[in-house]
């Protein structure tokens, strides 16, 4: 977790191997992601990782069914009837089996993310990376997504990395939380520990207070000075 | 969009392009004449060929019957040697005359064949004896002025 | 002040070099994955539809009018010399050597090139390309190369159609409106238009134009900033650079093909 613009998404992209770190090593399942060649990396992603993007990143020219079937068709030689079974099961799991003929443009943001989730688990990965799964959702969709991520995690025995700044939702389903700010880990621990952190900053972040170590005002001169200056200039 | 519709549309597109290319190649360019049955070749010597070029038409009585294949200069007789290819359907007597003519006042130059009355026909490789060189406008005007000057 | 200007100049120059370099590397990458794409014709056929078939109407309409206008204008000039039977030659030679490839290139850059850039740019900004990467599907193979190939195939085909339609348009004006003898129309062409020199050279031009326009279009789409502003700029750049490239290359190719 962390405020906007602190490098959370960058971190996810580093884990997924889409960006290369300037220094340091990232190991996933003991494998240094950035040591892999192009083809090995793709093979590794196919086997290990699913990723849920902020916008869902559904392919806009395919309908819901084809979107979920896409990774299966690309990576397996299953027959269409087997694919149909798998796709319908995955869609059932996210509750959108009835929406299989809709196009991505016809879905609400929350539904698009659920379809994307069904797609991410289509190849049964070992871990799923979630990029801001709750941002901009109404409370109901948010509740649905929280429940889905939680259930999915337990039912499939997945490792999930959730990047978010929605404190309550994320804290409610996570086992361990890292809070980052300006590219640095400022605090880590179980959600409970974080709520009782000594750090003023973490307190402000967890409780969503308007003023604190992160000031309400953008750094500036004193208001009175500023006003006087304009008058003097006149 | 249904895959079948797309494939049909693309098929139509490619077919249209092929038809267009065929039309361009056969109907509006000389490709057809490249493949035409090879005619028999005859030669003719001219004093002056004017603006005649390789592939200029050869006609008889205004009908297009062949084309010029090559133009050389014979340094023994100091004359231009024009080789033309005549389509095999057309046969001409041995005493046929060849002249270089101009279509219209400023048009392209071509070879006109004027058949004679000989019993025997021209054979491949034969030489046309009677020829008339191209009319070169500058020379004609020059001659005209010269004769005018002499009259006075 | 002076130094700022110098810095700006240097920055722009470096920027141009960087773009050219990225564009070149991008092209090499496309060519590298192209064999894999050829093995998936379904993807290419779908793109042929979006890139080629959807540009067909504008090409046909433009070709028809260009041919008709050319015929009318040539008539006005040629009739003074009593050479109006050469209309067909005038129309066909200008269309095959210059107007066909150039017009098709410009129209293609405007219609299909901009659409390609916008589509790829939008896929990038909506994270569809990243999404594919994370699904272990190479967007280069799945998205870029099929579009590139479809574009490179489409342009010569569209050019051939443009040429044929333009000549038919010229035929319509010359024979139906101006009452010329239609035998002259075709015989002039068959006698004077050379298959290799005129038609084939025109088609070679169109192949070059297609390659360059599509390259610019997919590169701009892939290289654009993933914002609505960046997308707009990239689309504009495709049309502007694509059109200028067509015109510039046309000059060079004409100089090479028809001698100086």
User: Which stretches of chain C of 5+ consecutive residues score pLDDT under 50?
Assistant: none
Give the number of domains of chain C: 1
Strand segment tally of chain C: 0
Helical stretch count of chain B?
Answer: 3
Most extensive contact: B-C, 30 and 34 residues
Structural class of chain B: alpha/beta
The low-confidence runs of chain B, each spanning 5 or more residues with pLDDT under 50, are none
Total number of helical segments of chain C?
8
> Could you give a short account of the major beta sheet of chain C?
none
In total, the number of strands of chain B is 8
Query: How much helicity do the residues of chain C have?
Result: over 70%
Principal-axes shape call of chain B: elongated
Which H/E pattern describes the elements of chain C? HHHHHHHH
Task: Specify Rg of chain B, calculated over alpha carbons.
Answer: 23 Å
The end-to-end distance of chain C, rounded to whole angstroms, is 46 Å
| SS-based class of chain C | mainly alpha
Cα-based radius of gyration of chain C, to the nearest Å: 22 Å
- Assembly annotation: heterotrimer
Q: Determine the N-to-C terminus distance of chain B.
A: 89 Å
Outline of chain C, from the CA principal axes?
elongated
Give average pLDDT of chain C, whole number.
91
In short:
The complex is a heterotrimer of chains A (234), B (152) and C (260). Chain A has helices spanning 8-16, 38-48, 64-75, 80-93, 109-120, 139-156, 167-173, 191-195, 200-207, 223-233, and strands spanning 27-28, 31-32, 49-52, 127-131, 159-163, 177-181, 184-189.
Commentary on this structure:
The complex is a heterotrimer of chains A (234), B (152) and C (260). Chain A has 234 residues and is an alpha/beta fold. Chain A contains 10 helices and 7 strands. Chain A is globular, with a radius of gyration of 21 Å. The termini of chain A are far apart. The mean pLDDT of chain A is 83. Chain B has 2 domains: 1-35; 38-137. Chain B has helices at residues 3-27, 31-34, 137-151, and strands at 40-46, 57-60, 63-74, 79-86, 97-102, 109-114, 127-128, 130-132. Chain B has an 8-stranded mixed sheet, with no helix packed on it. In chain B, 20% of the residues are buried. The model of chain B has no long low-confidence stretch (mean pLDDT 83). With 260 residues, chain C is mostly helical. Chain C has one domain. Chain C is built from 8 helices and no strands. The model of chain C has no long low-confidence stretch (mean pLDDT 91). Chains in contact: A-C, B-C. At the B-C interface, helix 1 and helix 2 of B face helix 2, helix 3, helix 5, helix 6 and helix 7 of C.
